[in-house]
Amino acid sequence: MELGLERMSRLMAGLPVYARPTIHVAGTNGKGSTTAILSSIFVTSNITSGRFNSPHLVSEWDCISLNGAPISETFYLEARDKVERVNTDLAIGATNFEILTATAMQIFEHVRVDVAIFEVGMGGRLDATNALPDDCIILSAITAIELDHQAWLGHTREEIAREKAGIARNKKVCVVADSITGSVKQAIKEVLEAAKADLFPASPCDKRPWDDHVDGSRPPPFSYQPRFVPPPPQPVQVTLPQAQMSIKALLSMQGDHQRENLATALSIVTALLSHASTTTYRTTIANRIIQASIVSGIKSARLHGRLHWLHMTCPPLSPTLTVLVDGAHNRAGCAALGTYLDSLRLSERRCFVLGVSEQKGKDPRDTLAPLLRRGDNVAVVPFSPVDGMPWVHPVSPYEVTRAVREAIGEEGSLFCANAGGQDAAAWDEVKPGEYPRRQLQAALQWIAERSKVAIVTGSLYLAADFYRILKDNKQDRLTTTSTLSKTA
């Protein structure tokens, strides 16, 4: 992995000028959800928008969306071909992520979106997305800061925060998540002051009781037996004094942590509506956003791989299985997932399908500690090689099963979907162009024989393999919950 802006700047100099009004979002956790909520609000406000998220999920092009829907493969390949020709002709040697970022820029410029939303790949200061021209940036935002990617970004939250705050631009506003406090917020403040950027603290988002007059009839509670009923949306309230609004809405995204992501997204909207630096965009963007479109956008916001519930059959024996898919991949993400599971009060032993990404200096025991507990059932699996990311690998069977066994104790059950067994130093080889379908299906079948609920987690790359299985089994539409996203 090579961070830096020199190649990206050369690449952009050889391409048509990018000039779309852009919102730039960094952070450790919550970037994808925050941008998905923001995009949904733009859609319901009739604002043409583009969104770039990373990593991609199932296919490389699904990280680029227009008006909440992923672009087509054909559109993507046509745009990427132009970027690759410039990369070749100028002998730039751009990385795959840099080419992907430039492709998104070219697509958004070609469509002439009213606003583009770019999620940082990693860090911020030296990320390819930070080559976005200053004149294009409407505002920046920073979501929750946690320990992750320490080998590249620093070993403390303060160091990581400084790297992420590096996306702030001169005389522009930067929204900072409500959870960022103390020395971490101070570190961000120092970077913003040096950049002459204005810190805009996000408003808190509160949970509230269900109100039949505001929310309509209360839906039935969550259930997975005798039939599956998805969890109801969260009634929330956010006061936005600068925009002179008090928003009462239903947040379909599950989990307490999504309230903070909603608060950040709404604070971005508030900055658009009220901050002096965004006046230029009032007519084309901000003035189309009204309270009703915000409420509608919040309710319709979705994102694959983030506490996504669905109901499926599980070949070859075809028992039905309720599945929760969540891409928690660091300690904070696992803690958030653990908190959510505790709130459900599941009546049976918890069963996980787990795949963990290898990262220098990252111990799977530390990552999984807030999630796993004694007596859990855990199936350990690999995930596919990731397009354009040859450095991404699953943690070895030996290392991950050791971490799992330590957490679940002898009371729990452990299944390792590997011909070499749990003591192997490497996973079974997967042929190019394939993915570990057999291992993942075996793990799901193992759980289906023990439980009615499976929790697929540990990596978004594993979540992607799960969605591939659904697609292969023609079950990609077989879901009884509205939490299935339209925006991969």
From TrEMBL:
GO terms for cellular component: cytosol; mitochondrion. The keyword ATP-binding applies. GO terms for molecular function: ATP binding; dihydrofolate synthase activity; metal ion binding; tetrahydrofolylpolyglutamate synthase activity. InterPro entries: Folylpolyglutamate_synth (IPR001645), Mur-like_cat_sf (IPR036565), Mur_ligase_C_dom_sf (IPR036615). Keywords: ATP-binding, Ligase, Magnesium, Metal-binding, Nucleotide-binding. Coiled coil: none annotated. PANTHER family: DIHYDROFOLATE SYNTHETASE-RELATED, FOLYLPOLYGLUTAMATE SYNTHASE-RELATED. Belongs to the folylpolyglutamate synthase family. This is FolC bifunctional protein.
